[in-house]
Amino acid sequence: MEPHTSGYFNSSMLFKASFLTISFTAIYFYRSGKQVNFLRMPLAKKDSSVVTPVKTSIVKKKKKTIYLTFDDGPDKGSKNVLAIMKKEKVLATMFIVGAHVYGSREQNDIYDSLVQCRELEICNHSYTHAFDNRYNKFYSDPDSAVSDFKRCADSLDFANNIIRTPGRNIWRTENISSTDLKGSATAADSIYNTGFTAVGWDIEWHYDNAQKPVQTDIEMVNGIDIAFANNKMKTKDHLVLLAHDRTFKRPDDSACLHRFITLLKQKDEYNFEVISEYPGISKDSFSRK
Predict the structure, then answer these.
(1) Are 127 and 148 spatial neighbours (Cβ–Cβ below 8 Å)?
(2) 85: nearest Cα among 277, 257, 279
(3) Closest alpha carbon to 107 in 131, 72, 83
(4) The model's pTM
(5) In 160-170, which positions are buried (b, 16+ CB within 10 angstroms) versus exposed (e)?
(6) What is the mean pLDDT of residues 215-240?
(7) What pLDDT does residue 288 have?
(8) In Å, what is the CA distance from 119 to each residue of 116, 224, 272?
(9) What's the farthest any 2 CA atoms get from each other in the chain?
(10) 275: CB partners within 8 A, 6+ apart
(11) Do 245 and 77 meet the contact criterion of CB atoms below 8 Å apart?
């Protein structure tokens, strides 16, 4: 018996129609930019890893630290020093003589201004400044020397026990024990054993009989550069400068100090710190308050 030709025809026509529909649909989506799953060719997988550029570490230039210290205040010139430090926002330390604070109403007012200044740290420079510069007598009696520093500390209620000995470059810290004149060593030891920390200096801004600075601002900057270059300090990369308030009382002299600070800042290699940040200054030095 022959197969049913009409059923075969219908199946064949249905197949052709389906094939043409699928073909035209595929062409339409292809031309229109659309993709269908059954026409999508396998694509290479994208690399999902993120390449992080290697950062070159910048080695900062090691900075050296300068400790600006001013002795014998409050005195003529203290206000000028105060104004310069505030204007330039430079840290400094003032070693105060107790008798000077109570010398006059003006000096007392100046002292109050110094204490309130954020840029300044206040430390002890004895009460009588070695019995009014009688240095041999002062250091020959250790007990009297200790009492003089205690009197200054108690009368002014200092926040620390850091001192500078008048007329002597004496160091007594955790790291340094140095006395410029051996005859003062016993008194220096007594002062230290009582609980005071003594800080001297590495370089001094000298003054003449008229109380004017001897070196110019440029000479002082050069001297500091040379000291650092040749490691002429008690502690490497840490330099303590000694100056005196009264030498900057005149406008031209205070201008010299201002230029000195500006020149140091322009070098961008020096930090300025208060003396309590000097290496070897024990935190016990802040036990008085």
Answers:
(1) yes
(2) 257
(3) 72
(4) 0.78
(5) bbbbbbbbbbb
(6) 98
(7) 39
(8) 9, 21, 10
(9) 148
(10) 67, 69, 93, 121, 123, 162, 199, 240, 281
(11) yes
Give the model confidence (pLDDT) of 79-118 as tens digits: 999 999 999 999 999 999 999 999 999 999 999 999 999 9
Predicted pLDDT of residue 284: 66
User: Token pair 């220096």 is at which residue?
Assistant: 188
Phi-psi region of 269 (alpha: psi -120 to 50; beta: other; left: phi over 0): alpha
Distance from C-alpha of 189 to C-alpha of 172, rounded to nearest angstrom: 8
> Can you read off the two tokens belonging to residue 27?
């062409």
Output the six-digit token pair for 184.
């003062």
Backbone angles phi, psi at 218, to 5 degrees: -65, -40
